[in-house]
Structure formats: C-alpha cells, structure tokens
Amino acid sequence: MEDVLNTYIQPANPQRPLVCMDEASKQLLADKHEPLPMRPGQLERFDYEYEREGVANLFMFFAPLEGKRHLKVTDRRTRCDWAEAMRELSDVHYPEADKIVMVLDNLNTHSATSFYEAFEPSEAQRLANRFEFHYTPKHGSWLNMAEIELSALARQCLNDRMADKATLAHEASAWNEERNAQVVKVQWRFTTADARIKLKHLYPKIRTWRSAFTGCGKLPRRWA
After folding, report:
1. Domain tally, the chain
2. Looking at the domain assignment, is residue 23 inside a domain?
3. How many CA atoms lie within 13 A of 191 on its CB side?
4. CA–CA distance, 160 with 156 (Å, rounded to integer)
5. Which of 53, 120, 207, 211 falls between 20 and 30 A from 14, CA-CA?
C-alpha cells in the first residue's frame, strides 16, 4: 500500500509517465423485441426480455497526472490479450518514454511473464524493460485510480444494452474521447501519513524487548 501511495506523490515526468490499469467485463445483451419508439409525452420503451450474446472485456489505462485515459475492448482477458494491450500502450501512446510506471492489481495475468507467452523472447524482454510495476495489495484495489474511471464508465456509458462488441467499442470510444477532451483528472489525497493513522489496525504489531517483559516483573538487568 505504501509503495503505491508513494508512487502517487511523485512529480509528473514525461519520461516516466504514471499509468493506472484495470479491467472490467461487459455482458452483451440484445433486445428480444423491438423497442417502442419515443412519442410526444412518452419515452422510448424497452421490453424486459433480452438475449445473451456473450461477454466482452475492457482494458482501462488511466494517466491521472495527464487527465488522459485509453480504452481497449477485447473478446477475452487472457495473458496474450493483456500483453497486446500493454504493447499498444507502450508503442502507440508512450513511444518516447524511458519507463512507464504502472499501478495495477496483482492478477496472475498482470506480469512480465505474459509478454513471454505472447511474443518472441527478444520482444518480450524489450516490453518488460519498458515498464515499472507497482501492485496494489490484496483487497486494496480501491488504491488503483483506474477503478474510479471504470466506475464513471459504467455509470455514464455501460448502463444500456449492447448486443455486440462493435457497439461496445464504439460507445466506449466516444466516452473516452469526450472524457479526454474535458481533461478530467483525479486529485488523489490519501497519503502514506493518512494510512498510518486511519489504517493503523492493518499494520503489524511490533513488540520490543522492553514491551515483551511488561507485566513480568522487573526487567533483567542486561535489558533494563
């Protein structure tokens, strides 16, 4: 946790851009019956029945210091899908960066080993050297600012039924462009100092030699 929080307070550096990454799934649903069109004084109406058309995946890359995000829609979220999305982030969005600083959760696909499953060893090593990984702790995904963007995406874009991946990609891309045009940033205020106070119960309890003998009478002379 402190590693992630200390990463967030580093100043903006174009050669070391900070990017938070997370992913989410979207169930594809088609209308079983044609919606009733809008009429004067009445909204468009949809039937509650639908047909399942599978599930699509969304990779969210959010640069909080720039107010920019990049969305990629895929059929699945395998190691190879993640590796391809990371290569696009590296070579398309940040080709001039020396190192891309990543904050992400510790899902088993989110590691440099995925590059070796997707690419030849030389390309895998090149990509592995392009990134610096900082993982959120278990049950600490709320520390990842990409979750904030995924929440906004879900509320503002993904509430409607979408029957296919192409529609999802189109809608997500439109949302992404509008959000980037507004340069929506996140003002992260939770610091390491805050964590040590508010989350004190999560820290290990340290026992010194002196406290270990408290309640046992007089301390031995050599420890007094």
Report:
1. 1
2. yes
3. 5
4. 9
5. 120
Task: Identify whether the C-beta of residue 48 lies closer than 8 Å to the C-beta of residue 86.
Answer: no
Least Cα distance to 176 among 100, 96, 93 occurs for 93
Residue type at 106 in one-letter notation: N
223 domain residue, yes or no: no
One-letter amino acid of 143: L
- DSSP-H helix ranges across the chain: 2-8, 79-88, 113-118, 121-128, 146-156, 165-181, 192-198, 209-212
Bridge partners, 23 (sequence order): 59
Name residue, tokens 């900082």: 134
Is the four-CA dihedral 170, 174, 177, 183 of positive or negative sign? Answer: negative
At residue 217, does pLDDT exceed 60? no
Per-residue confidence (pLDDT) for residue 168, from 0 to 100: 93
Say if pTM beats, i.e. exceeds, 0.90. no
Q: Is residue 202 part of a domain?
A: yes
Q: What's residue 162's pLDDT?
A: 83
| pLDDT single digits (tens) 36-84 | 788 898 887 766 666 777 899 999 999 999 999 999 999 999 999 999 9
Q: Which domain holds residue 54?
A: 2-35+43-212
Question: Which pair of tokens denotes residue 125?
Answer: 């090593």
Q: What is the CATH number of the domain that holds 119?
A: 3.30.420.10
Q: Look at residue 219 and tell me if it is in a domain.
A: no
